[in-house]
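ok trying this again, last paste got cut off
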Amino acid sequence: MSRINRFLGRVWQYGGLIVKGHLLNPVWNDRDVRRRQRYRATLETMMGYLKRYAPEVSKITPAPVDNPGAEPEHAFTIWYQGEDNAPDLVKACFRSMRKNLKQKLIVLDENTLFDWISLPDFIIDKWKKGIIPHTQFSDICRVELLYQHGGLWFDATDYITAPVPQFIMDEDVFLYGAGEKIRGAYAFIQSCFIRGKKGNPLLGIWREANFIYWKEEMSKIDYFVHHLMLRLSTEVNPIAKECYARMPHIDQDPTHALWGEHADDVYDENLFSQLTRDAFFQKTNYKDSRLKQLKEGSVADYILNSNL
């Protein structure tokens, strides 16, 4: 696929997004109505572009892995600069993982990551050149880790309040759905937590689909391109479609019940338990401006200083 064709494809799709998501999205409509229309237009735009890869993705047969089930499953996360250099909120999340998870936590960094995984040279080269941003590279790595080793993936900003439920551990693969409450509802799935057994076919197809995308592309078409390549896989690849259909479908909304609206609230044990009862982890944000003027006794203060 030539660069000119990719460029023209992007221009065409982005033009449609501007028209459908903005020009034909009346400013007098309710904010949530406008947001949903914008997300519908974004999804249509991005999938319209990514479907050029459908013929290749539809034919992916995941490669077998050696000795599935032969090694203990771990919980993986990444902080590129190393755990000792992580922000206080991230360190608090790591402590919560070690307290509540039954699996051993492996905190990877730039020096240890490739002790656990191998990736195609073009992926590593594009990452080192900045063509693949850190976030999208992390997306690639988490799938690779679980496909090669099995276990659990957690974002470094996941605050864990309970062990992973057994019904999730019993699944060969599990991801939460995108939900409706947070930015990027069109993203199809959430990837800040993934459960996957070693060699899982859905993970194998997903990893290959992303390799196909990045072999051709020189930039991300969307922040959630990784997620949308899984959506494409489940639409056009029969193996992926079957695996995804068997997976329990649960939206991520309960995993975002705490931080966004309540980080500044006065910590109350009963309220905290109520907000966290429907999910075993809560997504936080170490870049949150509220952390610069932390309120003593707040929910954020409790999280930062818990499990010390």
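PB: full thing came through this time. The mean pLDDT is 89.
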